[in-house]
Amino acid sequence: MKKYLSTILAALSAIILIGCSKLQQNVLAPQASQGDIHPAGWTDVNSPNFHGVFIKNNQYNLSTCTSCHGNDFKGGTSGKSCYTCHQGINGPLSCNTCHGDSTGIAPPVDLSGNTSSSSPGVGAHRIHLSGGSISSGVRCSSCHVVPQKAGPGIHPFGVPAIISFSGLSTVVTNAPSSQYYDNTQPTVTPTPFFNPQTLTCSGTYCHGNFKNGNNFSPKWTGSADQAACGTCHGIPPNTSAHKGQTIQTCYKCHYPTLKDANGTMTDSTHINGKLNLYGHELTVW
After folding, report:
1. Bigger pLDDT: 263 or 26?
2. Is 176 a member of any domain?
3. How far is Cα 147 from Cα 154, in angstroms, rounded to an integer?
4. Would residue 213 count as lying in a domain?
5. pLDDT (mean) for 115-131
6. Beta bridge partners of 195
7. Which of 35, 73, 82, 103 is most buried as measured by Cβ atoms within 10 A of its Cβ?
8. Top mean-pLDDT range of 97-106, 202-211, 223-232
9. Looking at the 3D structure of the chain, how many domains does it have?
10. Looking at residue 19, what is its pLDDT?
């Protein structure tokens, strides 16, 4: 009997050992890492696989990004934060992620990577904002809609920008309430318009659609001569009050905008929607 039990126990032990051996063989080994799920060149701005190109071709729909990196782009299920590279306050939703650069949010660079002012996406953005030597600049909202923030379903709107003139570009002049109202002339109410075919801007206060102005239509991608002195108003304007005057005498009436006979200009008081006359700044003229 003992011999019989020993045989049974030996057989059971063998079965158990074989079973354990087979079970161990069925345990899945750790899988080799699949690496980055993005294609090669995903972070290379010079690569056709650059993620900026992908996002642009996808109509700036960021849902593909947020599905892995989270709605706040700080990692999500991927554990990889977009803020590692996009270090602005709003991370990848900062304005200059798509246009502009480290010095400003306006192009250059535009959405297609262009830097030349001859490209419509670049044009005269920077000179409008800075003003150069003839003004202290204009707000972005004077010409187009400026979103309060970026994000899926909010902004980007797509290309081109939504043109909507306001502020400085629509200042009314020769209003009846003006101290210098001229009843022989109409009240000038600007009706700005941007022509996407000719890339010209017309009817704006900024470029001469004001009392005694030339109502000039500059080309958005033109050179600096599009805002040269004399394009927006005559030198001097063709009125009886300006008869016999020259550019050397402008400062005698229009100070502090003009400081001297050399035409030295105070940019903050030029193209600001107001009339500077005899040291006074008139908001209604």
Report:
1. 263
2. no
3. 8
4. no
5. 93
6. 200
7. 82
8. 202-211
9. 1
10. 37
Joined together, the tokens standing for residue 111 give 């959405």
Burial of 275 (0-12, 13-18, 19+ CB in 10 A): buried
Which DSSP letter does residue 214 get?
Answer: -
Residue whose entry in the numeric block shows the structure tokens 């996002």: 55
Q: Considering the domain boundaries, does residue 62 fall inside one?
A: yes
CA atoms of 96 and 264, how far apart (whole Å): 35
pLDDT class of 153 with cuts at 50, 70, 90:
low
The parent domain of residue 67 ranges over 41-93
Q: What is the DSSP letter of 23?
A: H
DSSP 122-168: TTTHHHHHH-TTT-S---GGGTB---SS-BTTTB---SS--B---GG
- What's the mean pLDDT when you consider all of the chain? 83
CB 140 within 8 A of CB 129: yes
Q: Output the pLDDT for position 151.
A: 66
Cβ neighbours of residue 216 closer than 8 Å, sequence gap 6 or more:
207, 208, 231, 232
DSSP labels, 41-84: TTT-TTSTT-HHHHHHHTTT-THHHHHHH-TTSS-TTTT--GGG
pLDDT of residue 152: 62
pLDDT at 93 over 90: no
Cα-to-chain-centroid distance, residue 211: 32
Name residue 200's beta-bridge partners.
Answer: 195, 219
- The pLDDT-based confidence of 170 (bands split at 50, 70, 90) is very high
Question: Could you report the per-residue pLDDT of 191-227, keeping only the tens digit for each?
Answer: 999 999 999 999 999 999 999 999 999 999 999 899 9
Tell whether 193 is covered by a domain.
no
How far apart (Å, rounded) are the C-alpha atoms in residues 163 and 144?
4
Distance CA(6)–CA(189), nearest Å, equals 112
